[in-house]
Design a protein that fits this description.
By secondary structure, the chain is an alpha+beta fold. The chain is built from 9 helices and 5 strands, in the order H-H-H-H-H-H-H-E-E-E-H-E-E-H. It has 2 domains: 8-89 and 188-199, Ribosomal Protein S4 Delta 41, Chain A, domain 1 (Orthogonal Bundle), CATH 1.10.1050.10; 93-179, Roll (Structural Genomics Hypothetical 15.5 Kd Protein In mrcA-pckA Intergenic Region, Chain A).
């Protein structure tokens, strides 16, 4: 499946936020990329603002348009506030849960761990990054991969208490997905209502 593999700093500068984590380039050049990046731009339309918010969410979670649209349609059929339910679905993706548990410092790295069969869900290997983890399920590092340097380095000193919907067991290198996260607990700076308005047109 196609993925964005270009410069991450360019995307962060486009949105004016370090959506992939700390960004030295963004700190030095806090303006949009391109030769006209520092020029004053025309006022963005309402549609443009909504579209930008959707793109930011897609880049943040590493989801392509079709997947994102499908998740929104599923959220629309689910009881609750559409925007919040959409973010909950994005947070419950296996690659995101692996990232939140600290097994990888980035979502892209977490997706690779899942794809290379280093992760299990309830004891069974799952290599589908978009797999939706359900409350009560256990996400763990596969037994033979527990000594992988990339995983042990990422877990070293990681604060597992910052995500209240996840519970970490250091001895088994596993985490339990306790419940869907509350919107207030999701740290991403995404205005989900703008995405709802965009898809509702």
């Amino acid at each position: 499946m196609a993925r964005y593999i270009g410069p991450k700093s360019r995307i962060s500068r486009k949105f004016g936020e370090a959506i992939y984590g700390p960004d030295k380039v963004l700190a030095r050049r806090n303006f949009p990329p391109g030769q006209h990046g520092q020029n004053k731009r025309r006022k963005t339309s309402e549609y443009g603002i909504q579209l930008k918010e959707k793109q930011k969410a897609k880049y943040t979670y590493g989801v392509l348009e079709r997947q994102f649209r499908n998740l929104f349609e599923k959220a629309s059929r689910t009881k609750g506030i559409k925007g919040e339910v959409l973010l909950q679905f994005l947070e419950s993706r296996l690659d995101n849960v692996v990232f939140r548990l600290g097994m990888s410092p980035t979502r892209a790295g977490a997706r690779q761990l899942v794809g290379h069969k280093h992760i299990t869900v309830d004891g069974a290997v799952v290599n589908i990054p978009s797999y939706m983890v359900k409350p009560g399920q256990i996400v763990a590092v596969r037994e033979k991969n527990k000594s992988m340097e990339v995983i042990t380095e990422s877990l070293s000193g990681f604060n597992h208490s910052k995500y209240p919907w996840l519970e970490w067991d250091d001895s088994s290198m596993s985490g339990k997905f306790l419940h869907m996260p509350d919107r207030a607990d999701i740290p991403e700076n995404i205005k989900e209502q703008l995405i709802v308005e965009l898809y509702s047109k």
